[in-house]
Amino acid sequence: MQLDRIVNFHKTIGDKTRIRIISLLKEGPLHGQAIAGKLGLKPPTISHHLTKLKQIDIVYQRRDKNTIYFYLNKDKLERMALEITRIGDNEMFEKFDITEGEKAKVIRNFIDGNGKLKALPAQRKKKLILLEYMLRGLEHGKTYKEKEINEHIQQYHQDFATIRREFVMAHFMYRQDGIYELNPVEMWPV
């Protein structure tokens, strides 16, 4: 599971009304009017929150004649809630066990005499080694604007947009609102 999905899940359920709806649905299915009545809120408000919960597949609906009932997807809720405890586990982030000698060989093959990346390899293991190499000079605990990351990457490669995206997708970095930060080394794939 990707880090973005975990963050999205927790952002979505991190609302008092949504937690109250989940609590009500744990007891069994309810229709929107019943939920609104129990929570003392208007039906459009409940509809909005149910839509958000359906987007992350925590709530689903079934029609019974003219009434739509909402059900809690308990298995999905439990699975998603537990995912945060698995961050860093091998099942979540593929970890490569690579020796320093292997890393040095890949770097020699793909980095020219000026320290520039000749090409980004297609093989994932080699690509990860080179991405880690290009993180040199960035500090843990420090936040960077997108422009700063672009300038840093251009020391190694002209296609900063691709490399920046690869940093995030490989979990080397975290991005939010154009601000970048290195993830803990334990989350890195190499």
TrEMBL record:
This protein's UniProt keywords: DNA-binding, Transcription, Transcription regulation
Matches recorded under SUPFAM superfamilies: Winged helix' DNA-binding domain
Annotated signal sequence range: none
Species annotation: Oceanobacillus sojae
Gene3D superfamilies in UniProt: Winged helix-like DNA-binding domain superfamily/Winged helix DNA-binding domain (1.10.10.10)
Record flagged with keyword DNA-binding: yes
Keyword Acyltransferase in record: no
Protein name (record): HTH arsR-type domain-containing protein
Molecular function via GO: DNA binding; DNA-binding transcription factor activity
Pfam families, A to Z: DUF2087, HTH_5
UniProt-listed InterPro entries: ArsR-like_HTH, DUF2087, HTH_ArsR_DNA-bd_dom, HTH_MetalResp_TranReg, WH-like_DNA-bd_sf, WH_DNA-bd_sf
Superkingdom of this protein's organism: Bacteria
All copies of domain HTH arsR-type, residue ranges: 1-92
